[in-house]
Amino acid sequence: MFKNKAMELGEKLLPAFNTPTGIPRGVINLGSGTSWSWGWASAGSSILAEFGTLHLEFVHLTELSKDPIYTEKVMNIRKLLNKIEKPHGLYPNFLSPVSGNWVQHHVSIGGLGDSFYEYLIKSYLMSDKTDEDAKKMYYSALEAIEVNLVQKSPGGLTYLAEWRGGILDHKMGHLACFSGGMIGIGADDGAPEKRQHYLDLAAEITHTCHESYSRSTTKLGPEAFRFDSGAEATATRLSDRYYILRPEVIESYMYMWRLTHDPKYREWGWEAVEALEQHCRVESGFSGIRDVYTMTVSHDNMQQSFFLSETLKYLYLLFSDDDLLPLEDWVFNTEAHPLPIIRKSCLQDEATPDKT
């Protein structure tokens, strides 16, 4: 039943790709098949994190349905992205599905950009390390990120700035904190001389994200934190002080624990558990809070769906043995749903049963 539903839904999504470039529009009416772009997206553009975060699911849909159309749709997107000019090797967040050109030169590893990068390295891992194209795109993007966005604060914290048409905005969003885990899981397949460097970078970013938690009164991190005008890993704007049960920091703890087994990642995870219990637990579940810098808690009365699918799952995995959903057998999609790595060797064994 679930397989049929997945295939039915995949089919319903296909009309969104009917654009001059094959880049799907952001919203689709599943009844009529009409699709359009978000009203707030500049000049009717599609968003990098949306059209760039289909790969794992669509390749898996092809696997389930044996219909190549889903893989073709996402490979098409990749071909276009490979072909067009990228400012300093970076991928801006907005692209026109009509012209295939970038609409604004805003680059972020946080919201609007984030999971596009994550899906490049995860596509490579999910393909049992055969998708060389995804691997190449990932390491080139990472190189551009290192050259242009990775910064060191006066206090020695490594962070990822945002890039607005060549001008750096020294702010890091909570959403960008997934990147510690991403750089960590990609470290092993980088050039041999860079592997340790990537693992160190992953640890430094994860440490910075932990600092955004430990420097708040509640020990939960704000939605965005800054590194300018004397600020270090703290939110300076009232509008950035909220925490809505987001998982990204804990996600990086989980990956870094699996990769290094350094006990500090479990200690940091436990701090988060205690803070969630103290500040976010309400009678009927958990709620986001409006200001992480005050002990007078103001709940937003919302339990986001990613709290269950990601925040709690990553905490559970952080404190579980490594053989529960081992990283060599499973890839987590951007909402922490596990997808299997289909081993080419297993498929060969199936074809020649006399071997087993």
TrEMBL record:
Reactions mediated catalytically: N(4)-(alpha-D-Man-(1->2)-alpha-D-Man-(1->2)-alpha-D-Man-(1->3)-[alpha-D-Man-(1->3)-[alpha-D-Man-(1->2)-alpha-D-Man-(1->6)]-alpha-D-Man-(1->6)]-beta-D-Man-(1->4)-beta-D-GlcNAc-(1->4)-beta-D-GlcNAc)-L-asparaginyl-[protein] (N-glucan mannose isomer 8A1,2,3B1,3) + 3 H2O = N(4)-(alpha-D-Man-(1->3)-[alpha-D-Man-(1->3)-[alpha-D-Man-(1->6)]-alpha-D-Man-(1->6)]-beta-D-Man-(1->4)-beta-D-GlcNAc-(1->4)-beta-D-GlcNAc)-L-asparaginyl-[protein] (N-glucan mannose isomer 5A1,2) + 3 beta-D-mannose; N(4)-(alpha-D-Man-(1->2)-alpha-D-Man-(1->2)-alpha-D-Man-(1->3)-[alpha-D-Man-(1->2)-alpha-D-Man-(1->3)-[alpha-D-Man-(1->2)-alpha-D-Man-(1->6)]-alpha-D-Man-(1->6)]-beta-D-Man-(1->4)-beta-D-GlcNAc-(1->4)-beta-D-GlcNAc)-L-asparaginyl-[protein] (N-glucan mannose isomer 9A1,2,3B1,2,3) + 4 H2O = N(4)-(alpha-D-Man-(1->3)-[alpha-D-Man-(1->3)-[alpha-D-Man-(1->6)]-alpha-D-Man-(1->6)]-beta-D-Man-(1->4)-beta-D-GlcNAc-(1->4)-beta-D-GlcNAc)-L-asparaginyl-[protein] (N-glucan mannose isomer 5A1,2) + 4 beta-D-mannose
Keywords of the record: Calcium, Disulfide bond, Glycoprotein, Glycosidase, Golgi apparatus, Hydrolase, Membrane, Metal-binding, Signal-anchor, Transmembrane, Transmembrane helix
Cellular component GO terms, alphabetical: endoplasmic reticulum; extracellular exosome; Golgi membrane
Annotated membrane topology: Single-pass type II membrane protein
Location within or outside the cell: Golgi apparatus membrane
Stated family: Belongs to the glycosyl hydrolase 47 family.
Protein name: alpha-1,2-Mannosidase
Species, as recorded: Menidia menidia
